[in-house]
């Protein structure tokens, strides 16, 4: 499953479903797809997401010495969504996902 986040002020962001659902929960929303955040609620959702990412960074990093592929942290995966939410908050714009 893919989840696409949209707002009027930024390019659409498409993520794998498991990552998108994790980020939605970090923002304080249910894992319901489709869904939306009203413009008035975007700054609070952005702050909750940033706080959850900061808390995640402070934990021990997940590394696998036997893995041949590098692990992409949730903080790195969240950057496009953080940018989208930042632009939406500045422009007082709703955010939707489907």
Compile the SSE list and pairings:
Elements: E1 2-7, E2 10-16, H1 17-26, E3 35-37, H2 42-58, H3 74-91, E4 95-97
Antiparallel strand pairs: 1-2, 1-4, 3-4
Descriptive overview:
This protein has helices spanning 17-26, 42-58, 74-91; strands spanning 2-7, 10-16, 35-37, 95-97. The chain is of the alpha+beta class and 98 residues long. The chain has a four-stranded antiparallel beta sheet with strand order 2-1-4-3. Strand 1 (2-7) and strand 2 form a beta hairpin. The longest helix is centred in the C-terminal third of the chain and has 18 residues, at 74-91.
Overall tally of domains = 1
**Biggest pleated-sheet summary:** 4 strands, antiparallel
Mean pLDDT: 91
Biggest sheet: strand arrangement: 2-1-4-3
Q: Helix proportion of residues, in percent?
A: 40-55%
Strand proportion, as a percent range, falls in 15-25%
Number of helices: 3
β-strand number: 4
The structural class is alpha+beta
Low-confidence stretches: none
Report the radius of gyration as a whole number of Å.
14 Å
Terminal Cα separation, in Å?
10 Å
The coarse silhouette is globular
What is the chain-wise order of helices and strands? EEHEHHE
């Amino acid at each position: 499953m893919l989840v696409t986040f949209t707002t009027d002020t930024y390019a659409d962001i498409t993520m794998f479903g498991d990552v998108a659902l994790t980020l939605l929960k970090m923002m304080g929303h249910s894992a319901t797809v489709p869904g939306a955040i009203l413009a008035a609620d975007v700054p609070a959702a952005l702050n909750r997401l940033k706080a959850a990412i900061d808390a995640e960074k402070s934990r021990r990093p997940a590394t696998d010495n036997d893995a041949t592929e590098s692990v992409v942290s949730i903080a790195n995966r969240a950057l496009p969504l953080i940018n989208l939410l930042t632009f939406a908050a500045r422009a007082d714009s709703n955010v939707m996902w489907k």
